[in-house]
Amino acid sequence: MTFAIVVGSQWGDEGKGKVVDYYAAQADIVVRFCGGANAGHTIVSGGKKFAFHHLPSGVLYPEKINIIGNGVVLEPKKFFEELAQLDAVGIKPNIKISPRTHLVMPYHIALDGAEEGKKGALAAGTTKRGIGPCYSDKAARFGIRVGELLQPALFREKLHTMHTLKVKLLKDVYGVDFLQSEDEIHSLYSAYAKKLAPFVTETGDILSDALAKKKKVLFEGAQATMLDIDHGMYPFGTSSNTSAGGACTGSGIGPTAIDEVVGVVKVYTSRVGSGPLPTEIDDDVAKFIRDKGGEYGTTTGRPRRIGWLDLPTLRYAAQVNGLTGLAFTRLDTLSGVQKVMVCTHYELDGKKLLTPPANYTDIARCKPIYQAFAGWDDVGDDKWHECARNGFKSLSKEAQAYLKFVSEEVGVPIYLVGVGPGREDTVVLKSIFGRK
Ligand code: GDP
Ligand code: IMO
Ligand code: MG
């Protein structure tokens, strides 16, 4: 039995989708516990590329249960679009949705754009998927949950109250005319209700049963530690608890159930959206990585900002998440860079900092202090596949030294190393489910 959480250790897009898909082969259940359609998780399986925003990354295995937990905010339109895309290629996943999951409503999406427009330099550069406004309503107890959508009279009443309020808010505060009428949204969401009903069940019970039957469960984080509403770089992150604690609150199991917490670490830094990024580089190396790695947002298509690996952030991620293992990704993408830099600590006001300060204003003033490492060669796809088969020792000495240094500094062992986007491009050092 293992209950294992997979989380992003940096600013998102570390390769969580790939890592979850890899582990899912051995799991019984995969659970998404936070975020919504702001996520973009890419999986390459059998040469085919899939990008999931809403669906858990275990959906390519139809025999596994895939849960959308209560911590997620569900945008039905996106959910059904993704299901239709899978259906078109003959994949019919087994999905369960918690009745406690909150719904993203059209006015949340309108508010996301309106609020960002008024935030000036504090705008996080959101994905405009209505995430912040939906979680705001959840916390203010204004939200509408999936289970409530399934009760027609209750849904009508809540929608009436909220629609009236949001039209006024958008107009009077933000100067935006919200033109979708209450009736229009009512009929759209009533149609979703019919289609969603078969998926809705007490997902907490499924997990509790899985615990009792000693099953293997994988909790799939979205976003990342530095985007967490509490522990991330406030206010430039997202609106949910994206770190490991969110797996419990966002799915309905207790912390004592968790055996492993795997932090996904891209071997350099990338970031979509705004806010300070201490190790950011904007030179030929950044261009090389962005072009070679196709570093453009999966959800928005925006070019990702690039930086060197940032150890203060990773130490902090190890602490906040209680990481038990590291899953490195994109060793192949960074190959070919002759001198690879790692930020070992920051300097701020004459002090050495091993983890980031709390305020973004202080993070912006931190000076990253680097240690240089010899880079490793790009050995080409065939050789990377061979490394995946032959194990860690088959990687170049330089790559091994780099990864071991990071693991030792962070104090967390290496579980796997990604050397390509495919499921099979994975060098495994330690399994989480008892076998490699
Ligand atoms: P996520 O949001 O954390 O799931 O990551 P994204 O899917 O947004 O972005 C990660 C990108 O890196 C995707 O295009 C993956 O296919 C790709 N990827 C993941 N691991 C590796 C790896 O080890 N090597 C290479 N070349 N690509 C990888
Ligand atoms: P995955 O799961 C990278 C960023 C946005 C923005 C901030 C808030 O693919 O790693 P939001 O729309 O959530 O209100 O935006 O968070 N962001 C992500 N960046 N990967 C993600 O998800 C992200 N989800 C949100 O760019 O700065
Ligand atoms: Mg992504």
Strand and helix map with partners:
Blueprint: E1 2-8, H1 16-24, E2 29-32, E3 41-45, E4 48-52, E5 65-68, E6 73-74, H2 76-88, E7 94-97, E8 102-103, H3 106-118, H4 131-139, H5 146-149, H6 152-172, H7 182-196, H8 203-212, E9 216-220, H9 245-249, E10 260-266, E11 269-271, E12 280-281, H10 284-293, E13 305-307, E14 309-310, H11 311-321, E15 325-329, H12 331-334, E16 339-348, E17 351-353, H13 360-365, E18 367-374, H14 381-390, H15 397-410, E19 414-418, E20 426-428
Parallel strand pairs: 1-9, 1-10, 2-5, 2-9, 5-7, 6-8, 10-15, 14-16, 15-19
Antiparallel strand pairs: 3-4, 11-13, 12-13, 16-17, 16-18, 19-20
Helix pairs in contact: 3-4, 3-6
The protein binds guanosine-5'-diphosphate (GDP), 6-O-phosphoryl inosine monophosphate and magnesium ion (MG).
Explain what this protein looks like in three dimensions:
- With 436 residues, this protein is α/β, with parallel strands linked by helices.
- It folds into two domains: 2-89 and 202-428, Adenylosuccinate Synthetase, Chain A, domain 3, CATH 3.90.170; 102-144 and 151-199, Adenylosuccinate Synthetase, subunit A, domain 2.
- The protein is built from 15 helices and 20 strands.
- The chain has helices spanning 16-24, 76-88, 106-118, 131-139, 146-149, 152-172, 182-196, 203-212, 245-249, 284-293, 311-321, 331-334, 360-365, 381-390, 397-410; strands spanning 2-8, 29-32, 41-45, 48-52, 65-68, 73-74, 94-97, 102-103, 216-220, 260-266, 269-271, 280-281, 305-307, 309-310, 325-329, 339-348, 351-353, 367-374, 414-418, 426-428.
- The strands form five sheets. The protein has a nine-stranded mixed β-sheet, sandwiched between helices. Strands 14, 16, 17 and 18 form a four-stranded mixed β-sheet that branches. It has a three-stranded antiparallel β-sheet with strand order 11-13-12, with helices on one face.
- Helix 3 (106-118) packs across helix 4 and helix 3 (106-118) packs parallel to helix 6.
- It is globular and about 65 Å long.
- It starts with a strand and ends in an 8-residue tail after the last strand.
- 50% of the residues are buried.
- Bound molecules: guanosine-5'-diphosphate (GDP), 6-O-phosphoryl inosine monophosphate and magnesium ion.
